[in-house]
Model the fold of this input.
Amino acid sequence: MRIIIGNDHAATDMKMEILAYLKELGHEVVNFGVDTTQSCDYPKIGEKVGRAVVAGEGDCGILICGTGVGISIAANKVKGVRAAVCSDTATARLVKQHNNANILAFGARIVGLELAKDIVKAYLNAEFEGGRHQLRIDMIHDIEAGS
Ligand code: RB5
Done:
């Protein structure tokens, strides 16, 4: 898979580890995050990754900030993004199976590295189930379209 990753200063170390892990798993990774711990603005990174994912520049995105919340809220403002913050593997699996989340988010200050790797793996290995779940996603996008 081609995965677009983004992070703010709170998650630089975690991003480096996850980026290496994704490569180990054989994925191609595009890095739109920061590589230093100098303070930066996570909305810009969430938006950039969101726009790239919706444009089809990658198969999915991974966003990491302190909590995973701010950066995913920003990404979710981009039409077509379904970013989900996950702090456990069951949620990571279900956001793909039921919500077809196109961006996985988590918090570097919330989950440890080994759990973060398991979350990433659970998300990437899961498959969207379609059917009634697609109808509900369509309803979400109707809300987004203002219809
Ligand atoms: C940065 O200090 C922190 O606010 C950010 O990484 C994130 O947790 C916001 O939701």
